[in-house]
């Protein structure tokens, strides 16, 4: 093969199996030097598995990997690092109690006579941070920074190791539109410097704007590789899902009724800084409407939702649900009072990862008479309930209800949470980034579900960083900036650019936000 060296990475005929599922079935992927190559596919199509094989986290049953035309054996991530292959995982591999700087240098420490040379490391990280616009507080602990900031730490970790081949696994799932644009610029800059990027995504806009070529997988199989210049979004989505997909949300006019949720003068203290993360927030969400809180990540949305759901205590203010003050209720009481919650961090607050899928499906209802009798779990009932939800919401897993949640793809973990929370049938649905990490087919389904809940008279409070989703799905938009509601908008009358100005703090409405 005289043209072999033009490929910096070749994965030839890779097959990887797990119990009950062939995650990769004879897949070939070739990455050219200096290109951004996208890997596109539905949730559970095998994208992350294929990249985990390249990074040495899994060993394939069949197939070979070549680097610069030479066959290599990658037994573990250290082998991958030695070959200058780096990976930013969809679920970050960071140590919560360490600082940002410690996480970046962990495993690649510079020591002299047994002493850690942190000053040198700090200088190098600071230079990388300035050069690529990845601003992050090097002394903050990971547990205290937002998911968007953690994403930056992962990228810095990869750049710190001087990697040539960079794997980004769903890198924009947690970023705001502005941050996504910045990341795309960073990726273009990295490629100009001779690096090669493998970019796992199912966001068609991003792939069209940044990738040179795209390889499509469906259900673990290779569908094809195309130049992005030669295809449309519709063609790509059909390759990926196997059917035409509705890319716009269809919904009728909203008919809001009585308020289900009333929030008055809510303040929440910041764990990280000596100030309020949420300042004097007041608004209502009525039955039969979708109210969306839009904003750039890290502007108090997470703390606000934590206070609303009971994960954190509000410092002052009141929260009323269905006419009842729930401000001092526990998490379980709030759930029983009438709210369901699709959380922002599916691993931390959404699932018990080492439980089975069926156990996760009844996390908030195992004590219900339907699922227990005198304190004994009715396992048959739990099983059939889980099977019904798996069927209704197309949750894909290797072993059905007995699959361990940790082994499922991120998108299917998300589908499981959405199935559980919508099926609880509560008057209020709090949906925080509900489509994070989902493919176009699954997003279409979730949007349809949320609109159906609205039309059935539920109150839906949506928190989203995806401006398309905000504009498409909401009946009212509230913009949160530095913990305050700085504007209220009708999605039919506001432009994305206008929203962006409020989100960045450049503009603020003086009037009170209407209840």
Assign the CATH topology of the largest domain: Rossmann fold
Give me the oligomer status: single chain
Q: Give unreliable regions as ranges.
A: none
Strand order in the sheet with the most strands: 6-9-10-3-11-12
Q: Strand fraction band?
A: 25-35%
Terminal-residue CA separation: 68 Å
Report the principal-axis shape: globular
Architecture per CATH nomenclature, i.e. the level-2 architecture of the largest domain: 3-Layer(aba) Sandwich
Number of discrete helical segments: 17
Defining traits:
alpha/beta, Rossmann fold, 515 residues, six-stranded mixed beta sheet, 17 helices, 32% helix
Describe this structure in words.
The structure is a single chain. The chain has 515 residues and is an alpha/beta fold. It has 2 domains: 4-241, Rossmann fold, CATH 3.40.50; 259-352 and 427-503, Rossmann fold, CATH 3.40.50. Helix content is 32%, strand content 27%. It contains 17 helices and 24 strands. The strands form 6 sheets. Strands 6-9-10-3-11-12 form a 6-stranded mixed beta sheet, sandwiched between helices. The radius of gyration is 23 Å and the shape is globular. It starts with 6 loop residues before the first strand and ends in a 12-residue tail after the last helix. The model has no long low-confidence stretch (mean pLDDT 88).
